[in-house]
Design brief:
Layout: E1 2-7, H1 10-26, E2 29-34, H2 45-50, E3 58-59, H3 67-85, E4 89-93, H4 97-108, E5 113-116, H5 128-139, E6 142-145, H6 148-156, E7 163-165, H7 169-184, E8 198-201, H8 205-208, H9 211-222, E9 228-231, H10 234-242, E10 252-255, H11 260-268, E11 272-275, H12 278-286, E12 291-293, E13 309-311, H13 321-325, H14 343-353
Parallel strand pairs: 1-2, 1-4, 2-3, 4-5, 5-6, 6-7, 8-9, 8-11, 9-10, 11-12, 12-13
Helix pairs in contact: 1-7, 1-14, 3-4, 4-5, 7-11, 7-12
This protein binds uridine-diphosphate-N-acetylglucosamine.
Keywords: Isomerase
Domain UDP-N-acetylglucosamine 2-epimerase: 24-351
Family: Belongs to the UDP-N-acetylglucosamine 2-epimerase family.
Length: 358
């Protein structure tokens, strides 16, 4: 069996890592195509190196652009690569513009399409990722869902017969890296001193692209009573610069995005996380740290149970940030809604079982 994976943005490299390993273990031929949506070494290369992912077989170097420009620039080259390889499965990951472009390219040339992390929904139609998810799920032949809640969404949309619950592949990686980080022993996180600190990431368009909202978030982070290690995505830096907004103020300690193992170590050493990232919300939950999410909703609703994750939707809610962000961990999670860390093996099993059936 030949699987062709298409990835392009940081969270997709994390998801690719356990899948590449599972393909290797099962003797499955695996072609990796990188669209080039993320191209900064800190957002791309370090993930391949640290997570021991084989180098991409094809790199399309598409780069940044508006949604239409970026998605459109990927379509033609992806079609050509897929025609050249004619895989048994095209495998797409998550909800980025790379996901949608690969999905459209594959189904138009009648290649079986599997969507990993299918069925997540925010029900927020202002989010570009929500359209990418919904359109990809409805195009795909096989929907590999991470949770029971995702399975429910797919069933509600009439997609139950194409859906399989496999668990969450990010959990595979998170547990593996956590164990390695703990075994290696803790090393101090630069810039935050010896006391409690928070880890923060902000990059979603809803938070960065409205000047008043962005200024309110930066002010609230700066006013926190402990250091805030802010791992600044290029989109955040660019928007602050454009608006003349100083990021390095008050409690904020600005740093580059971290490689995955250092990110896990920083969260493990922290008093909590303040973010708008989907992946980091779940990682905080898996690592037993309290998360505060600056969004109106979350796709990972399981993290809300037991108070592990708290949403602060509006700028007015930011007044409560000090008390909420430093509330400490909630009740220990009773359930393991994201699986036990063997989702990628299940993914390859299901692809093998359904080969030729799509
Ligand atoms: C994308 C995904 C988002 C995901 C995020 C993870 C879409 C619609 N969004 O958002 O779901 O959570 O990746 O990080 O696909 N830039 C650089 N260097 C890079 C990449 C981007 O400087 O290597 C800057 C550019 O100014 C670019 C901006 O970041 O215009 C946005 O990049 P883009 O890939 O369009 O979206 P992200 O915000 O990264």
């Amino acid at each position: 069996m030949k699987v062709l994976s298409v990835v392009g943005a940081r969270p997709q490299f994390v998801k690719l890592a356990p899948v590449a390993q599972a393909c290797d273990a099962a003797g499955v031929e695996h072609v990796i195509v990188h669209t080039g949506q993320h191209y900064d070494p800190g957002l791309s290369d370090v993930f391949f190196a640290d997570l021991r992912i084989p180098a991409p077989d094809v790199h399309l170097a598409v780069g940044s652009g508006s949604h239409g420009e970026q998605t459109g620039a990927m379509l033609g080259p992806l079609e050509a690569v897929m025609e050249q390889h004619r895989p048994d499965w095209v495998l797409v990951y998550g909800d980025t513009n790379s996901t949608l472009a690969a999905a459209v390219a594959a189904v138009k040339i009648h290649l079986p399409l599997a969507h990993l992390e299918a069925g997540l929904r925010s029900f927020n139609r202002r989010m570009p990722e929500e359209h990418n998810r919904v359109l990809t799920d409805h195009a795909a032949d096989l929907l590999l869902a991470p949770t029971q809640v995702a399975m429910g969404h797919l069933a509600d949309e009439g997609l139950a017969d194409r859906s399989v619950l496999v668990g969450d592949v990010m959990t595979d990686v998170c547990f593996r890296v956590r164990d390695a980080v703990v075994a290696a022993g803790s090393s101090p996180v630069a810039g935050v001193g010896d006391g409690p600190y928070l880890v923060s990431t902000i990059h979603r368009a809803e938070n960065t692209d409205d000047p008043a909202r962005l200024a309110a978030i930066v002010r609230a982070l700066a006013a926190l009573p402990v250091p805030v290690l802010l791992l600044a995505h290029p989109r955040l830096r660019a928007r602050c610069e454009a608006q003349g907004l100083e990021l390095a103020q008050g409690s904020i300690v600005v740093a580059e995005p971290l490689p995955y193992p250092q990110m896990v170590a920083a969260v493990l050493g922290s008093a909590g996380v303040v973010t708008d990232s989907g992946g980091l919300q779940k990682e905080a939950f898996l690592l037993g740290r309290a998360c505060t999410t600056l969004r109106t909703e979350t796709e990972w609703v399981e993290t809300l149970e037991g108070g592990w994750n708290v949403l602060l939707p509006d700028s007015a809610d930011l007044a409560r940030l000090p008390e909420v962000a430093l509330r400490g961990p909630g009740a220990l999670p009773q359930a393991t809604p994201y699986g036990s860390g063997d989702a990628a093996r299940r993914v390859v099993e299901v692809l093998l079982a359904r080969e030729g059936a799509a």
